[in-house]
């Protein structure tokens, strides 16, 4: 290389450059030939199209026929469900003073304040409403109905059920065309596991709250507290796991036909999803009594008694483990004076074994059997007296 002339060096550089160009050209042709069946521009365009068009959204979750039915029922009945607010004059401290001797003196005034809230629902277009007795039991309070539209109307308590947690009201303002109302169903044929819908003014704040569940039990007997007059025994109650919260009391329990089968009444404290409703058949009777007599009437027999079970039999040394033992409470008579029982010849110490042919026991309480009858009905009584069975007949009268 050292002995190359200048001309030879130039020729050598030109030759290397030529060879390099040839090799590069051959490689380029080979690479393009491998992709001859695929247009690079088309490939890039497809990539851009795939990025610009995301995959179609997943279909919305399917809504079952039952869900659609529940939505339809709620839409139809909600205008007939109302909130009931109780208000009364209460004494309040307006000013207070501290005396030089450390005593506190106060000026008291009167203010009208809300003292309670619950739910109810229209059962007729003329403004008749049913609710729980404990919602409207304070006779010193006034009651306002809040419609779903938010309008407030006054209401008058027509009747309080003397035995069951039922009350009937009527609004004072009747619009043209009347009010929407809920049709009443039949609670005698209910089944455990049946789907139900509860609607009410939850916590006295959340109007027309809806919950769905099933009937968990039937013919429950419970002692409910929190009423204006203290604890109350509720018999023949419907148990449900549909959420029933304070404030829901008096709202409807509905079946899947949209008919009311109960009135939401109580919830088990310290437990979840255990609520109770009064069966609607009791409400039907109350409504008819109010329309016909202006009050809710019941027949009565006129005895005080203890239901006999194995424990009572053992403790009192009785010959049977069922029936109703006629016995006096402290300071009270076992058989009321001038009562149907007195007229029929029932005596203290008698055991009423059967009422109108039905055996009396823990599941068939005497009070429930009497309540199923009408005023003026004649009933047969099987009595155990001093070891002998005798038959008597009584004519039921209106409870005084």
TrEMBL record:
InterPro entries: Chloro_Bact_Ser_Proteases, PDZ, PDZ_sf, Peptidase_S1_PA, Peptidase_S1_PA_chymotrypsin, Peptidase_S1C
All copies of domain PDZ, residue ranges: 299-387
Keyword Thylakoid: no
Gene3D superfamilies, per the entry: 2.30.42.10, Trypsin-like serine proteases
GO BP of this protein: proteolysis
GO molecular function, one term: serine-type endopeptidase activity
Keywords from the named record: Hydrolase, Protease
Keyword Signal among UniProt keywords: no
Family from the record: Belongs to the peptidase S1C family.
Name of the protein: PDZ domain-containing protein
Protein's organism: Candidatus Giovannonibacteria bacterium RIFCSPHIGHO2_02_43_16
């Amino acid at each position: 290389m050292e002995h190359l002339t200048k001309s030879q060096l130039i020729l050598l550089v030109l030759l290397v450059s030529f060879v390099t160009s040839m090799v590069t050209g051959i490689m380029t042709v080979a690479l393009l030939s491998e992709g001859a069946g695929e247009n690079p521009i088309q490939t890039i365009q497809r990539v851009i199209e795939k990025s610009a068009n995301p995959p179609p959204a997943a279909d919305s979750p399917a809504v079952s026929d039952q869900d659609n039915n529940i939505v339809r029922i709620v839409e139809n009945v909600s205008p007939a469900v109302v909130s009931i607010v109780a208000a009364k004059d209460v004494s309040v401290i307006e000013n207070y003073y501290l005396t030089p001797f450390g005593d506190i003196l106060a000026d008291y005034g009167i203010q009208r304040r809300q003292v309670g809230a619950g739910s109810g629902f229209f059962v007729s277009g003329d403004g008749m409403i049913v609710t729980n007795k404990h919602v409207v039991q304070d006779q010193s309070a006034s009651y306002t109905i809040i419609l779903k539209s938010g309008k407030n109307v006054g209401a008058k308590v027509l009747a309080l059920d003397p035995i069951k947690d039922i009350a009937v009201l009527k609004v004072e303002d009747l619009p043209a065309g009347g009010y929407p109302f809920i049709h009443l169903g039949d609670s005698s044929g209910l089944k455990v596991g049946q789907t139900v819908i509860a609607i009410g003014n939850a916590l006295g704040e959340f109007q027309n709250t809806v919950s769905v569940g099933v009937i968990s039990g039937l013919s429950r007997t419970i002692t409910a507290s929190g009423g204006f007059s203290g604890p109350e025994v509720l018999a023949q109650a419907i148990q449900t796991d549909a959420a029933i919260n304070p404030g829901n009391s008096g709202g409807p329990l509905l079946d899947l036909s949209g008919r009311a089968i109960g009135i939401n009444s109580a919830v088990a404290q310290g437990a979840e999803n255990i609520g109770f409703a009064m069966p609607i058949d009791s409400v039907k009777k109350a409504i008819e009594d109010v329309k016909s007599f202006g009050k809710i009437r019941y027949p009565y027999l006129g005895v005080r008694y203890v239901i006999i079970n194995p424990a009572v039999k053992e403790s009192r040394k009785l010959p049977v483990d069922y029936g109703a033992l006629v016995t006096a409470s402290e300071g009270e008579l076992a058989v009321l004076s001038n009562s149907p029982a007195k007229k029929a010849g029932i005596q203290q110490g008698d055991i009423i074994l059967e009422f109108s042919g039905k055996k009396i026991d823990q599941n068939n309480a005497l009070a429930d059997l009497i309540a199923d009858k009408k005023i003026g009905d004649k009933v047969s009584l099987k009595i155990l007296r001093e070891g002998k069975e005798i038959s008597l007949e009584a004519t039921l009268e209106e409870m005084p």
